Amino acid sequence: MTLLRDSRQRSIFRAVASLQPNVRRMLDPLPNYTELGTRAWDYTFECPVGVWRARLDAKAWGKGRTILLYFSETGSGKKYCVCAFDATYYAPADRSINFRRTGQPGQTFELETAKTRTGRTRFLSASLIVELQPSDSA
């Protein structure tokens, strides 16, 4: 009887584990990338190589366990899309910021990106740039 109970528990565990990403998405306030409409087409995955500053315009679930981060480069206004994967806890390679929990549209970040050997963008690091408010005691 114990073996049957353990077998049932394992099958229930497997069923719950397979549904977990979908349940997380339903509970998460992030939209799906298809809900962004035509705005998403304005962004390219061909990010500049090196360190650059950009404002986070939006973030949305991509396909699978991916968060798509939509940035506008400060100065030039060019629009780029960067992927944050579940394997890196939705963070750049250095795990500096978890974009699932942190990072709101309108915030400015210093980003570092590189190219993989296949030519895709690799998200290396990110840091939030805190913009100081002018003091009222001037």
Across the major sheet, the strand order is 3-2-1-4-5
Strand content: 25-35%
Major β-sheet, in short? 5 strands, antiparallel
Distance between termini? 78 Å
Element-by-element helix/strand order:
HEEEEE
CATH class of the largest domain: Mainly Beta
Extended strand count: 5
The best one-word shape is globular
Number of structural units classed as domains: 2
CATH topology of the largest domain: OB fold (Dihydrolipoamide Acetyltransferase, E2P)
Query: In CATH, what is the homologous superfamily of the largest domain?
Result: Nucleic acid-binding proteins
Q: Please name the CATH architecture of the largest domain.
A: Beta Barrel
From the alpha carbons, calculate the radius of gyration and give it in angstroms: 19 Å
Helix content: 10-25%
Kindly report the average pLDDT value: 82
Structural class of the helices, strands and pairings?
A: alpha+beta
Low-confidence stretches: none
Characterization of the model:
By secondary structure, the protein is of the alpha+beta class. The protein folds into two domains: 1-29; 33-129, Nucleic acid-binding proteins (OB fold (Dihydrolipoamide Acetyltransferase, E2P), Beta Barrel), CATH 2.40.50.140. It is 19% helix and 32% strand. The protein has one helix at residues 2-27; strands at residues 50-61, 66-73, 79-85, 108-115, 121-129. A five-stranded antiparallel β-sheet has the order 3-2-1-4-5, with no helix packed on it. The mean pLDDT is 82.
